[in-house]
Write a structure and sequence with these properties.
Number of helices: 6
Structural class: mainly alpha
Radius of gyration: 24 Å
Largest sheet: none
Length: about 180
């Protein structure tokens, strides 16, 4: 059995820390988008309701509908990013391959285990350095999968938000110019 070198352990730690930091960054971006759009809706709704006649007469409801769809879509996607994962999607399953052991280091793999079962499995897992390597690689993979999912959704939310703001401004300019 070959032990992990100090350099390898540092690389794994750094990679895990970077992935965790990037996950927090994605969550922070989702929070900002969610909060910003919720505040926009909160401030716009009373103004719209108090000026509904002017909005309808001036056809300003068109840009307001675009802005509303933008805000609600961005809120929805940001909420999906912040929603806790389905642990079954991001964990190794011992049933997939009987020769592959699932990682005891990811809570999603053991949170349903009984204490004795977990302690026995953990003892067995850490006694074999090849198994430890395999578990670390598994954990990095599943953290990366979840991070990639979050980043894709955040990118989509930003694109919808920016595109919706542009369309709102463009439609407002058109309505004001032609009315």
């Amino acid at each position: 059995m070959e032990k992990l070198t100090k350099q390898t352990i540092n690389i794994i730690r750094t990679t895990q820390r970077n992935n965790i930091d990037l996950t927090q960054l994605a969550d922070n971006k989702a929070n900002v988008l969610l909060s910003l759009n919720a505040i926009m809706i909160t401030f716009l709704l009373p103004m719209i309701l108090s000026n509904i006649e002017v909005i309808i007469q001036g056809y300003l409801f068109i840009p307001l509908i675009i802005l509303s769809i933008t805000c609600f879509s961005t809120i929805y996607i940001s909420t999906i990013v912040l929603k806790p994962s389905n642990l079954d999607e991001y964990r190794a399953s011992p049933s997939n391959d009987p020769d592959t052991q699932f990682s005891p280091f990811f809570f999603g793999n053991f949170y349903k285990m009984e204490p004795d079962e977990f302690f026995d499995y953990m003892s067995e897992s850490v006694s074999n350095s090849e198994m430890v390597k395999s578990h670390l690689v598994q954990d990095l993979y599943y953290i990366g999968k979840r991070l990639g999912y979050k980043m894709d959704k955040i990118r989509l939310a930003f694109n919808i938000f920016l595109g919706g703001l542009f369309l709102t401004l463009f439609s407002t300019a058109i309505v004001i110019y032609f009315m």
